[in-house]
Amino acid sequence: MPESSELPQFVSFLSDFGRGDEFVGVCHAVMLELAPHLRIVDISHEIAPFDVRAGALALVRSVQYLPPGIVLAVVDPGVGTDRRVVAVEVEHGVLVGPDNGLLAPAVAMLGGPRRIVSITSEAHRLTSPGATFAGRDVMAPAVGHLASGVPLDELGEEVDPAGLVPGLLPLPREHEGRLLAEVLWVDRFGNCQINVGPEELSALGVGPGDGVEVRFGDQARRARWVAAYAEAKPSELVIVVDSYGLASIAVDRRSAAVECGLRSGSAVEVVPPGAGDSIGGEGQAVHLTERRR
User: Fold this and answer.
1) Rounded CA gap, 23 and 194, in Å?
2) Is residue 166 a contact partner of residue 101, using CB atoms and an 8 Å limit?
């Protein structure tokens, strides 16, 4: 067994468990029972229940900032089925979780898998009365054993890295001079991150300070590309390149999600000047069905 100083010192933990029940605390306890030296970073436990894509997005946004060690991610609507639980070795650590697309984007961000093991060892899990809490009974024990020096290959058989279930994250599409995009994430401030980067906006001929038309549902609004939320005028819809390098639709100190009726998965069109019909002034929403009459 490696010396204590060589053991993983951190586990970073993400789940859809919430904080109302005991699930997070019990997983902490299982890991610490096996590896008392561990320090646990709770990334988030407020992922929407069963939302694998939201969990994958939160993980890929976070993973480059996490300390070297182990990542435990549990958003597992297929718990109790034949979906695999895997441990994925990357350059500076191991990611443990269900093989349902949750881990794949983060693994890619970290340079791809070196080895993947399907966690099947009965000796490295808890005995349980049912199969509904694999986070406690399979994944947390696997993390604890890895952190205490158990080799990866003792947890189960190695599997083909190409077989890792991919995370299906949408890409924007250019169509007739406009971008067909989608809201990836709404943060607690109501800013709506879309799957568009500044390079896609530049390819449309749009630069910082320019205005675009943003269409969603049956509405269209003008939005200006600004560098910071505080540059927005009162009630003005703006586009800001956020801290993850993607465009966010925002209103200063208010919720763009509430004002525009947007949520994760909402379709959004970004139309550069001259590519669509002219709309009203700053902050004015126009119903597309009315405009077309």
Assistant:
1) 32
2) yes
